[in-house]
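Our platform keeps sequence and structure together, in a single record for each protein. Such a record has a labelled line for the sequence and another for the backbone structure tokens. The tokens are whole numbers drawn from a learned vocabulary of local backbone shapes. The remainder of this section carries one protein's record, kept here as part of the documentation:
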Amino acid sequence: MRASTTLALTFAAFALAACQTAGSGSAPAPAPAPQDYTVPGVTPSTFHLPTGTGCSGEVERFQAVMDNDLASGHTTKGVHGRVSAEIANARRTCAAGNESGAIGQIRSTKSKFGYPA
């Protein structure tokens, strides 16, 4: 047999042997469902803004945005704490019946921290 033929047959044998791998015997684990993990920097598909009208709705929606920004890594704990303290002040103003004052406080806080009004 010629050397080139031997070389070709040897290569073919190795190529075929590579196709004959033994099975592991078990199926791979299924991928986790989307709700089972979070992706840093991405708001989960389950996030929904609170509903509501007036100052209480504004307060709760902005708090939800801040909580989501903290959870997704878009803000730090320090900024979240400062903004949440201002939101708490607006919540008290709203509870005292000063609708326009509370909404003004929320708008001011949003502007100060770079959130759209």
The two ends are 84 Å apart (CA to CA).
